[in-house]
UniProtKB/TrEMBL annotation, chains A, B:
The lineage of its organism: Eukaryota, Fungi, Dikarya, Ascomycota, Pezizomycotina. Its cofactor is pyridoxal 5'-phosphate. This is Glutamate pyruvate transaminase. PANTHER family: ALANINE AMINOTRANSFERASE, ALANINE TRANSAMINASE. One of its GO terms (biological process) is L-alanine catabolic process. Keywords: Aminotransferase, Pyridoxal phosphate, Transferase. GO terms for molecular function: pyridoxal phosphate binding; transaminase activity. The keyword Electron transport does not apply. Pfam families: Aminotran_1_2 (PF00155). Belongs to the class-I pyridoxal-phosphate-dependent aminotransferase family. Alanine aminotransferase subfamily. InterPro entries: ALAT1/2-like, Aminotransferase_I/II_large, PyrdxlP-dep_Trfase, PyrdxlP-dep_Trfase_major, PyrdxlP-dep_Trfase_small.
Length: 546, 546
């Protein structure tokens, strides 16, 4: 019937799991990279995969029947090699627990799942900012604008919300229409004005590209940058796994550089130079450096000197800078220094030296006090890119047509919020400040709890939405984890989830120095009960494996 | 300063334009594929690029300075090789004209630009469906739900719109929160119910993946499928260029099969077998077949026999079927036959034979009577895929976190609209029918106009949003086009745009048999003035080049 021999289901999977390329990718190009702890693929282990149990795949494939055209051994092996722990096994198991609690059939040792694995503020407690959502509701249903008085008197809309919706509607026509590939002209102009005000230097809407969240922007940039197997991109370790996952899909090399935990997870330029040298020695064409500022998962904020050091490094090593600045308003200590501003300053101070720096900086509506992840809004600005390259970027994003238009409108609202004296200003400011101080309080409460925990050390919260403590695990726990073919921090996180319903991400999901263990937790969840649950679990865990 | 020699701007571009791999990709694996007319890259020609003129790239790169790290010669050459005519040079020029008219500075020979190049209904005349947008406005600003009476009495919301918003909000919590990677459980359940009702066979929410429009779904599927340079996917010619562009980016092979214009652009299975044989002979591992039904750009609808033939072919040739069914409700003649339904019927009729068929079928909120392109909502259903493969698909989409949540809600509304007896039903039905009959009337008016035009032949409208007439161009016009390094139909389309402001896409943007010329136009624009403009232009053009 079929001219191509089908692959029989009964052949053991181990035949497929020897993936030299996949392993090479996970390990990276240089020997020292093999040491970075990245998540193990438990689907390959002898354990039943919790992951696949959670998703009832078709019965017809589950027996001893031969399988169809596609199987693990012949699909895109780059995807197989990619790892993305933020939504991996732990997150899937947490969702299973949530469903079980909802159904109420099976008793669990907790009454609520706390998703501390992902920066998703509105899944937890955070309310959207009223002005933003009022405008969006009018964008979705413009006939509301025909009765302005009722909107105001009955529903509390202010005139500036109404005016903004009219302005945006004039530009996009309908949020149901495709916009230009790089986004609505009005929104891009507003982003440029925002950048000019933030940095004190001109910004050009022609170089601003709206995107479906910052993730989509990163995907675009890495797609353009990575032209082959020997191309590499410097990625901080620990890092947000979007970068390593996307590089794996592109079959490009992740060139890791360790952040310095001892100095508050700051960027160590000497270490980066060494990483570049080692990668080059192995034939890697290192093309770009990713900097996440404020850091994810570390929360570290780079000051003007640190930013200058990275720019100098980019000049010396001829690197494109990808500045992931999505947490630019999530800062508790110090203030945000944008790469764009610092670059423009340096270009003024040392004419000529910095002329050819290529910088892509990203921002998003998902984080900050906006917290509108589900709307998938974001942008990146390109500085110093060649026109030909921008042309190819434009073409690349055109194939997906345009970012969600309502998300584009939200970008406009984020960068151009109500100003003092405008009708919605006071409420906006109150809501904004309440979110900011709530986040800070929760961060501090969690930090205090970690300080009380045996074997846990944590840097003082600086920014972003996360804490990333070190955890010293007993040898017995490490051995128990090894027996399950797991990293010890992953073992810890699974036990925590099973016992308390609190879902965190083990440090191995972001990368960490060998022999060290960490975990990342958001501080978005309200209340202190879940923090106490962690403290209690930790005490019992340490007792058990002492 | 920089250890890597920088590439001087003064080196002629021609050094970069010899792209053997890019040319191979554009040409496809088999000799006969070289004959397919795909768009030329005018950026490489000696003409000034209209495209780049339209986008004022940074001055600093425009002089004789050396360029930075990235240039056309070292970025991802797969992207360079990709072509996407729907938003190419013509669309960019049309946007320039639109801006010029808006600014009113420069007189043009027309007073309005008609974007007939892209199926973007709400950019033109189509109003969104009230029920959908009422629900979405409530999703965006849930405090509106606190005053139901005013919503109803002042703003005309019906109880079912209010109830639906509450139901969806309960599921997604907030449209500002990330959903599960493959979308909200409620929305996926509704899609499954819709499919069961449409096809008369069970559907499982676990195999339904919401996406940011169908384009994003296609991108996911091709990413999974294409594992290397020798992998190929059968794509109809003419086709929607998303497919060829994505395959080019993935460095996979497009294995084209010609649709049969003489029989209303139907699928010719013998021709497909031949394409597969030729591709195999050249070492291509042909993995899947793309079918666009109803067709884009052709509008052709496949009946049950034609669908069965494709499924049989998939069995014989061991191919995954990608059924792009986004125009499933845009049908004027006959009725839609879904691949899923036909497959399930065949599985019942001939037990065993069709058990291992793998089918991915896609749908979207962008087309049909919904027309909500800007919301980027869609889904795909997988049938018969191996659990391991679905696991990798889930991981792949997780890296981008989730599709826009408000777009997911719109998917729910599309598949679960108001039913007879429900308060919003009557208005919904009226609006839906008015859009459907308006589209049909416009299609017929355009068809009649084409019949009157010398050298133009057009199939009777069957479905989708497009007509795709053949045009016989005078030899002198073909020569004039060659002198500009353009395809003749592209030359024609540019002249049409310059003279009338009507933007269409030349057939070379979709692929066509050598020596034939076509163009695709939507029939979305209201009125007949723009149609008359085309008729008049055509007469003058034919006179000029006679």
């Amino acid at each position: 019937m079929s001219p191509v021999p089908r692959y029989p289901r009964s052949v053991p999977f181990s035949l497929f799991t020897r993936e030299p390329r996949a392993q090479r990718l996970a390990a990276g190009p240089a020997n020292f990279l093999r040491d970075i702890q990245l998540p193990l693929d438990n689907a390959h282990s002898s354990l039943p995969s919790l992951y696949s149990l959670s998703r009832p795949f078709s019965q017809s494939k589950m027996g001893s029947l031969p399988v169809g055209r596609l199987h693990k051994g012949n699909i895109n092996q780059n995807i197989l090699a990619a790892r993305y722990a933020v939504r991996g096994e732990l997150a899937v198991k947490a969702e299973e627990y949530r469903v079980k609690l909802e159904q109420g059939k099976e008793p669990l040792p907790f009454d609520k799942v706390i998703f501390a694995n992902i920066g998703n503020p509105q899944q937890l407690d955070q309310k959207p900012i009223t002005f933003f959502r009022q405008v969006l509701s009018l964008m979705e249903h413009p006939p509301l604008l025909e009765k302005e008085e009722a909107l105001k008197s009955v529903f509390g809309y202010k005139q500036d919300a109404i005016d903004r919706a009219k302005l945006l509607l004039k530009d996009v026509q309908s949020v149901g229409a495709y916009s230009q590939s790089h986004g609505s002209p009005l929104v891009r102009r507003s982003v440029a004005k925002f950048l000019e005000k933030r940095d004190g230097f001109p910004a050009d809407p022609a170089h601003i590209y709206l995107s479906a969240g910052a993730s989509s922007g990163v995907n675009t940039l890495l797609n353009i940058l990575c032209a082959g197997q020997d191309n590499g991109v410097l990625v901080p370790i620990p890092q947000y796994p979007l970068y390593t996952a996307t590089l794996a899909v592109l079959n490009a090399r992740c060139v890791p550089y360790y952040l310095d935990e001892a100095s508050n997870w700051s960027t160590d330029v000497k270490a980066i130079h060494m990483s570049v040298a080692q990668a080059k020695a192995q034939g890697t064409d290192v093309r770009a450096i990713v900097v996440i500022n404020p850091g994810n998962p570390t929360g570290a904020c780079l000051g003007p000197d640190a930013v200058k050091q990275v720019i100098d490094l980019a000049v010396d090593e001829n690197l494109v800078i990808i500045a992931d600045e999505v947490y630019q308003t999530n800062i508790f200590k110090g203030e945000f220094t944008s790469f764009k501003k610092r670059l423009r300053q340096l270009q003024q101070e040392a004419p000529g030296k910095y002329d050819h720096v290529e910088l892509a900086s990203l921002h998003s509506v998902s984080k900050g006090m906006v917290g509108e992840c589900g709307h998938r809004g974001g942008y990146f600005e390109l500085v110093g890119f060649h026109a030909d390259v921008e042309e190819q970027i434009y073409k690349f994003i055109s194939v997906m047509l345009c970012p969600p238009v309502i998300g584009q409108c939200l970008v406009e609202l984020m960068v151009n919020p109500p100003q003092p004296g405008e009708p919605s200003y006071e409420t906006y400011q109150q809501e904004y400040n309440a979110i900011a101080s709530g986040l800070h309080q929760r961060a501090l409460a969690l930090y205090e709890a970690f300080k009380r925990m045996e074997g846990v050390e944590c840097q003082e919260p600086q920014g972003a939405m996360y804490l990333f403590p070190t955890i010293t695990l007993p040898q017995k726990a490490i051995e128990a984890a090894q027996a399950q073919n797991r990293h010890a921090d992953e073992f810890y996180a699974l036990r925590l989830l099973d016992a308390t319903g609190v879902c965190i991400v083990p440090g191995s999901g972001f990368g960490q120095k060998p022999g060290t263990y960490h975990f990342r937790t958001t501080f978005l969840a309200p209340g202190t009960d879940w923090v106490n649950r962690i403290v209690e679990f930790h005490r019992k865990f340490m007792d058990e494996f002492k």
